[in-house]
Amino acid sequence: MVTLKHLSVEDPDDYSSPPVPDADFTEITPVTHRRPTPGTREMLLSRTNNLALSLVLLVGCYSAVLVPALIPSDPLSGANDNQHTDMVLLNRSASLLVQPCHPGWCVSRLLSLDSSPDLQDIPVFLQPGIAANRPIPWDLSPPLGLQGCDERVARALASLTHPGLPPSLEGRGRGGGCRRCVVVGSGGVLHGSHLGSHIDQYDVIIRMNNAPVSGFERDAGSRTTVRLMYPEGAPLSPSEYRHTSLVTLVVYKCLDLDWLTSVITKQPLSWWSKLWFWRDVVENIPLKPENIQILNTEIMRKTGLALQRYTQQQRKLVPTLGASAVVMALQLCDEVSLAGFGYDLQHPGARLHYYESLCMDAIKAQVVHDVSAEKLFLRELVAAGVLTDLTGAL
After folding, report:
1. GO MF annotations for this entry (predicted)?
2. In this predicted model, what pLDDT tens digit does every residue of 70-82 receive, in sequence order?
């Protein structure tokens, strides 16, 4: 019988410890069932603990990324403010349309303004004999007058089938009933407004230059009653003339009258004449001659005079087509609303136009118009109740 008197269970380390290797021995000694030395247990984590820690870190990283995006930290964020503002404007626009139209509303409100006599009873479209009935400032150059354009004016008017106010726009507040106008500007504030269905309900819808309709019906509407434009600003795409009742030339230079005559008579302009346009111009407009008119330059001149009260400039101001369209609308309609007006020059990175990504800062490149004076002018008309601002940027 063998007696294990030399074995002891009191110190298993003595049994399991491997021999100490020589100093120059570099081979790794296999690890046997050795109990960790004191402190090692706290430094090394088990596989289960490592997995749990990884899951915690993963969940934490996803939360840090996703939670701020899904749950805004500030409940009164700018996006919510914009959404709230849009709903307020939409509700106000809808309530305006369901109310009865008030005959003579704009004219009565204009009486409270100092400039009211200058903005009333202006013939809207150029027609033969208008110089005899109401003098045109022939001593002023376009666009404020028609100096030097006599022969071109005569040819252009002769090419029109029915120069002057069309029957569909006659009779403001009379037998034709009360008429509502909306002037649709190109401002970026119209982007995302969802006002298109409201705009289409107006009796007269006025647009300027090549501001597109196709593809922007949700915000800008689909119909056009009058499109004011000069040759370089005329839409190039035939689709933009669909659902359009009238295009109206705004004369910025005498050559513009030759362009209009060419479009109506289908007689092309000479290559020399084409050189004087600052960009390519459309040579065909898919509308009948009875759907074409020429804006009376008195509209531009009277608008410029009204703007003079709001500017420090001493020269004669050339108004934008937008401001001129507003004055034109005051002659045609009992109630006038605006959509897409108001340049926010305090935010240069804001959208300039509703149909493109050009920034507001680009407006500084133009030196012809005084947009700040125009904003003050329109703001006063809104404050006096002459106009209604559907997009709330004035």
Report:
1. exo-alpha-sialidase activity; lactosylceramide alpha-2,3-sialyltransferase activity
2. 443 333 334 444 5
Give every CB contact of residue 118 below 8 A, 6+ residues apart in sequence.
302, 305, 306
Instruction: Name the burial class of residue 371, with classes exposed (0-12), middle (13-18) and buried (19+) by CB atoms within 10 angstroms of its CB.
Output: middle
Separation in Å, CA 23 to CA 2, 20, 26, 27, 387: 39, 9, 8, 11, 98
Side chain identity at residue 267, one-letter code: Q
Strand order in the sheet with 204-208: 292-294, 244-249, 224-229, 204-208, 180-184, 335-339, 387-389
- Considering all CA atoms of the chain, what is the largest pairwise distance in Å, rounded to the nearest integer? 147
**Residue 64: per-residue pLDDT:** 55
Q: How far is residue 235's CA from residue 293's CA, in Å, rounded to a whole number?
A: 16
Token code pair at residue 83: 């959404």
Class level of CATH domain 84-389? alpha beta
**What are the phi and psi torsion angles at 183 (to 5°)?**
-100, 115
Q: Is the pTM of this model over 0.90?
A: no
pLDDT band at 44 (very low <50, low <70, confident <90, very high): very low
For residue 68, give both structure tokens.
């701020």
Residue 52 is predicted with a pLDDT of: 65
**Residue ranges of the domains in the chain?**
84-389
pLDDT tens-digit map of 261-283: 999 999 999 999 999 999 999 99
Phi, psi of 187 (to 5 degrees): -60, 150
Tokens of 281: 């111009």
